[in-house]
Amino acid sequence: MASVKLEVMLRLLMTRLSNLIRVRFFLAFVLFALSAIAFLDRTNISIAGLQIAEEFGLGNQRLGWIFSAFLVGYAGFQLPAGWLAARFGPRRVLTLGTIWWSVATVLVALLPARIPGAVVFLIAIRLILGAGESVVYPAANQFVSQWIPIRERGFVNGLIFAGVGAGSGLTPPLLNWIIAHDGWRSAFYFSAILGSAIGLVWWFTSRDMPSDQPNLSMVELQEIEVGLASRAFAAKNGVAVGSEALRVSWGTLFRRRDLPALMFGYFCFGYVSWIYFSWFFLYMTQVRGFDLKSSARISMLPFLSMTLCCLAGGALSDWLTQNNGFRIGRCWIATASLLATGAFLLLGSRVHSPLLAGVILACGAGSLYFSQSSFWSVAIDIAGPSSGIFSSIVNMGGQIGGAVTASLTPWIAQHFGWTTSFAVAAGFAACGGLCWVFVHPERPLIMTEVELPVSVA
């Protein structure tokens, strides 16, 4: 009964909001919130890392294993996540995902302090968490391909991934405050409750297809239908958008020549980004000499930079794509952003002033996320209705990169110093930028075989 009342209230709210803003932008904002909560849940362990390490007798190397475990689970489930999002739709898959990862988050808090082999349990729980969160961005990209006109895709992807910066930026001060007042376990309970709440909002307000959305006006439905790139893409293959007969083959996807370039480019992106998610807070504390409170504040800078630059990069990508074509709007902007990231990493790790180092490295994070929208918009430009699957393959590369940096970065720092760790990351950023030379979003993937169901309306 309570759930029925909640659904009625949310529908009334949606009806009123639809008179003020477009429903697709409201749903994109809910995805922004889910993205933020997902990163809150995956990075909370790095903020509570000092307390967890002390309670369970862990060092940085073992913490690195725990960080990597999440990314192994996340990367390993990318293909199933993409298939599930395409087969069952983003509404059901994302809702189930939020419940899954909220339960995993609670399990960390329930782990007894003196349990033998705590590191094994933490690794297992983080694997489960990674598997649950693997659905977030393939499902979000499936939503974008079915709801968002091509002229808005860069901005909407930027908005969704701005949640990464917002969630990660709020994590240090918010969770440090909770940890200081109630202990690190309370921070994990808080993360789980917040994730479940946003998941319920998504379930009650979203639909897989615009035509199924009860609060969508005819004007907005026509805007979406006219602007959907997937409609032109499907017409090229003789299939109607949203048709249950739509199929795509694994062979067609993996024969795409620029797929390896996108995967390795996102591997490089993931390697660099997870230095910020896993190690930046500890780097500012242990290497640059900030106390916990100051480190929490300065650790907000990279994520604020990510949020702003993600939005700006998406908007600029849309504008350049409309006026100069896909190669400039998607590829060149990503190349320039990643090369600039490498330069910021080299400079920031070498300056003597701790505060200036934090600011320069934050600029590197912003520059990195200026390219974020390109990776996900290109997946839709290339794969159309199959973007949930295609983007999950690309995303797998990014998460493998993150898993590598979670363990490799402290090893390099221990043997060669943190300056070398950042230099290696700068090299990966430069390689990631060069990968975009081989990407061609102006040549959409053409489906010719029938093997895998893509969408169920």
Which features would summarize this protein structure in a list?
457 residues, mainly alpha, Growth Hormone, Chain: A, 79% helix, globular, disordered C terminus
Describe this protein's structure:
This protein has 457 residues and is mostly helical. The chain has a single domain, classed as Up-down Bundle (Growth Hormone, Chain: A), CATH 1.20.1250.20. The chain has 22 helices and 2 strands. It has helices at residues 2-18, 23-47, 49-56, 60-76, 78-88, 90-110, 118-133, 136-147, 153-182, 184-205, 218-227, 229-236, 250-254, 259-278, 280-286, 292-298, 300-324, 326-348, 354-370, 372-383, 387-416, 418-435; strands spanning 247-248, 452-453. The chain has a two-stranded antiparallel ribbon. Helix 2 packs antiparallel against helix 8 (136-147), helix 6 (90-110) packs antiparallel against helix 8 (136-147) and helix 17 packs antiparallel against helix 18. The chain is globular, with a radius of gyration of 21 Å. Residues 230-247 and 448-457 have low confidence and may be disordered.
* Adjacency order of strands in the biggest sheet: 1-2
Give the CATH topology: Growth Hormone, Chain: A
Instruction: Sketch the major β-sheet.
Output: 2 strands, antiparallel
Q: In total, how many beta strands?
A: 2
The CATH top-level class label: Mainly Alpha
How many angstroms separate the termini?
A: 27 Å
Helices and strands in order:
Layout: H1 2-18, H2 23-47, H3 49-56, H4 60-76, H5 78-88, H6 90-110, H7 118-133, H8 136-147, H9 153-182, H10 184-205, H11 218-227, H12 229-236, E1 247-248, H13 250-254, H14 259-278, H15 280-286, H16 292-298, H17 300-324, H18 326-348, H19 354-370, H20 372-383, H21 387-416, H22 418-435, E2 452-453
Antiparallel strand pairs: 1-2
Helix pairs in contact: 2-8, 2-9, 2-10, 4-7, 4-21, 5-6, 5-8, 5-21, 6-7, 6-8, 6-10, 8-9, 8-20, 8-21, 9-10, 9-17, 9-20, 14-21, 14-22, 15-16, 17-18, 17-19, 18-19, 18-20, 18-22, 20-21, 21-22
